[in-house]
Amino acid sequence: MKEKYCEICGERIASVEYIELVGGHRQVRHLCHVCAEVEANGIRFLTLGEFDRNINALLTCPECGMPLSLIKASLQVGCPECYNVFEGVIKDLLKRLQGSSSFIGKEDLKSSEEKDLIVIKHRLKKELEKAVKNEDFERAAKLRDKIKKIDRKLK
Amino acid sequence: MTWYESFRITPPWWQNQGEIVASSRARFVRNLEGNKFPSRLSESEMANIQSEVSVAIGDAIREFKGIEINTTTKKDFFVERHVLNKGSNLGCYLYMDHAEEEVYIINDRDHLRFKVTIPGKAFSEVFSIARHKMRILEKELNFSYNESFGYLTSSLTNTGSGFRVSVLMFIPGIFLARETEKILSLLVRSPIILRGFWGGRSEIKGHYIQISTKFTLGIGIEDTVKMLDEVVKAVLDTEKKSREILLAKGRIELEDRVSRALAVLESAKIISYEESLEHLSILKFASQLGFEGIPNERLLNRLIYWIAPLHLNSLENFEIAHNEEDFKRAEFLRKWIGGKDGN
To answer: N or C: which end of chain A has fewer CB within 10 A?
Structure first.
């Protein structure tokens, strides 16, 4: 896109869309930030970047005080409530980071207690063999107890 | 007794590491419902979390060592020991069993971080143990959980399952045969990440790499572990082939590197951590290949651990002056590799 120059000075890039209501009509002019400030009697205009930064710094989590700007910069949140307060933004960040924002690993975590115990028992047995071979009988006794415990749970 | 005296042994999971797949690790991150994450907690709030989690760890604790991480020296020591991360919080608290296979970290970036490490390739074992422990803890503790995001964690890279499986691999063959491109191409567009074992992604030292699952959302845990398994198999394969190629076509060059490494370690008067790691790693490789006149692998594993700055320092009660570290390291290596006492 070709850069537009300020309609007043014609020298600087027009970075402000200056909208006025003149006699009930919406009048749009493209001005540079210097001329726009003069037109508006000294009100400071923010660039879009500045606007974002200011808004983000103002938005903080009411629970822990974590500013949204810091969440965006560090990819860290301050408390579980941040996830609710900034849900939309966090969803976007998660999608960008992880390619998705939905948790689908629940089943993997909840189920198959039995399977885990069998795997653990298998490992303990291997260690027991090693302990016996090394004549580390104190450790062997401990391992035997652990295996018994698991056997009781598996029944 | 000082805190580091009970850490004079090299962790068994390291000492008994597998030849190429050195060890496997699973990690869970969890937080307690209704509490801010540690970065925004006051000291007294942190103490409350610590006691709540400690009680839940409960029975196991009697057999566990507990260490408060209250100085940067302690922190850095456990970073070297692969228990904490560079970014870990001062003020966190560790519980670990004597073999250092199971580690609970309280009030690091999250309220609770649990790691289990086993030598060799053992994904289903580490996953099962970690899942089992979390299941037990979940009966006692109310973990912060949300229907759409899953488990809520301080870092958005852990949100969801809070779970990661990783594997440590020793792949000197791939590095020496310049086949690293091959394994990097395996990782493109895969949900798997590669890191150096020491330091970050960019500084791979001592021919160790760590390969880990990446995503905690949008993909089932069992599925990511399967993908990790595939990548590990391919890397293992490449390493084996690289070793064959090196022995068949580059034997003299390899022998030359080994002799030089040995000569440096036997006779250097001043040596940095990085340089000694590089040479020890070459010797370890030579030992695996059955070269003669090389120290055995178990000694080399141990040395690789103890030349790290804070571990070396702990042997001398942290009294090594900063400018003497490289001198002490050279002395230590001459003693063990050269069989000379350094005088």
So the answer is: N
